[in-house]
Automatic annotation (TrEMBL), chain B:
Subcellular location: Membrane
InterPro entries to which the protein is assigned, alphabetical: Fe3_Rdtase_TM_dom (IPR013130)
Highest taxon listed in the record's lineage: Bacteria
Record-given protein name: Ferric oxidoreductase domain-containing protein
Length: 168, 204
């Protein structure tokens, strides 16, 4: 029985996700940003971003436009449609835990520019439930489906890139 | 045993000092501080348990219940701090470190339940020791693993405290197993009379 329990525990740990299901390291020191691949962009066929578990943690609808939230950490990204065309004027919400503000309070909305890019400046992120994480969401009513992401960074990162591909 | 208890005390104090002076807790909500400090003490409590099991059964039982209570407070404080994040962490989609903590908590409940029901279970001494002690050791190792993988107030020197606590726990388990192996020829299979070794000297 003891061996069986140890075996089950081993399976449970081996099948777990280091950062949580669907969460990626999107910090500047990570292997790559969250978003479409270079091949997808070249083909003009971008897979839509899918919300991941935990993406709506501490989400509050209609966050005010309060960027910048501080300085020392920059969240950037591009919002596209499934044909990989940049979407200007789209409101994106960003929220994360910093040393001076909790994840429940440190949030802002921001609109994409003519190239579909957005940028939010914040104080450096600190661990929230074990590791720094950054939430990016699209929650406007309209032609696009809502998307909520929870991704992680590492201590000391100065930025993160989270690109979104919206689908009808 | 005395050395191990003193070592655990030193580790506990060191852990509390590291945690309370950590920038992670500077200006943090009180529930986060409560959650961190209860977990720190619980880890050290688990580390000393194998050393108490043989001759200090009352202290062993009281420490076990205290550790479980501390861990429950740790979890409740996290739920108060951020229900969304706490429930996500405890869900099947939670990160590895959270799964380790959840398994450790379940094992801890089982270990305490086994300890409380020891006489009623009627298991042999070796069977009880394997399950009670083995699960407790797993709970300790997973708890330490959870804490080490968690960025927070126990980074840096805190990691050393956590690993030393884990090592103390494992050493206690190994020492108890070696001791029993040495005395086994002189000790008949004892049924449920003493699940943790020879009968304690004092009243139980």
């Amino acid at each position: 029985m003891f061996v069986a329990v140890v075996w089950v525990i081993g399976v449970l740990l081996a099948t777990s996700s280091l950062h949580g299901t669907g969460a990626r390291d999107v910090g500047v020191r990570a292997s790559g940003p969250e978003g479409p691949s270079v091949a997808e962009l070249a083909e003009g066929l971008c897979a839509p971003t899918v919300s991941n578990p935990g993406g709506t943690n501490n989400y509050v609808p209609k966050a005010p436009f309060t960027d910048p939230l501080g300085q020392g950490f920059t969240v950037t990204g591009t919002v596209r449609d499934e044909a990989c065309r940049p979407l200007p004027g789209v409101r994106v919400q960003v929220w994360a835990q910093t040393a001076t503000a909790s994840e429940q309070r440190n949030r802002t909305s921001v609109r994409t520019d003519a190239q579909g890019r957005y940028r939010v400046d914040s104080d450096p992120l600190v661990a929230q439930f074990g590791e720094p994480n950054v939430h990016v969401g699209y929650d406007d009513p309209g032609p696009w489906r809502r998307v909520f992401l929870r991704n992680v960074t590492r201590d000391g990162d100065t930025g993160a890139q989270v690109d979104l591909v919206l689908s009808p | 045993m005395r050395v191990a208890v003193i070592a655990a005390g030193v580790l506990g104090l060191a852990g509390l000092v590291v945690a309370t002076t950590s920038p992670h807790l500077a200006g943090a909500p009180i529930v986060l501080a409560v959650s961190t400090l209860t977990a720190t003490v619980a880890v050290v409590g688990l580390a000393v348990q194998p050393w108490l099991a043989r001759r200090r059964v009352r202290a062993h039982a009281a420490t076990g219940l205290a550790v479980l209570a501390l861990v429950v407070v740790h979890v409740v404080a996290l739920l108060v701090l951020s229900p969304d994040d706490a429930l996500f962490a405890m869900s099947p989609d939670g990160p590895t470190r959270a799964r380790m903590a959840l398994i450790s908590l379940v094992l801890l409940v089982v270990v305490v339940a086994l300890g409380l029901a020891r006489r009623r279970l009627g298991w042999s001494g070796p069977t009880f020791r394997l399950l009670h002690g083995g699960f407790a050791l797993l709970a300790a190792v997973l708890g330490v693993g959870h804490a080490v993988l968690t960025d927070g107030a126990l980074e840096g020197a805190g990691t050393v405290v956590l690993l030393a606590s884990g090592a103390l726990s494992v050493l206690g388990g190994v020492a108890a197993a070696i001791r029993r192996r040495r005395v086994r020829p002189a000790v008949p299979a004892s049924g449920t009379a003493s699940a943790a070794g020879p009968p304690p000297r004092g009243p139980r």
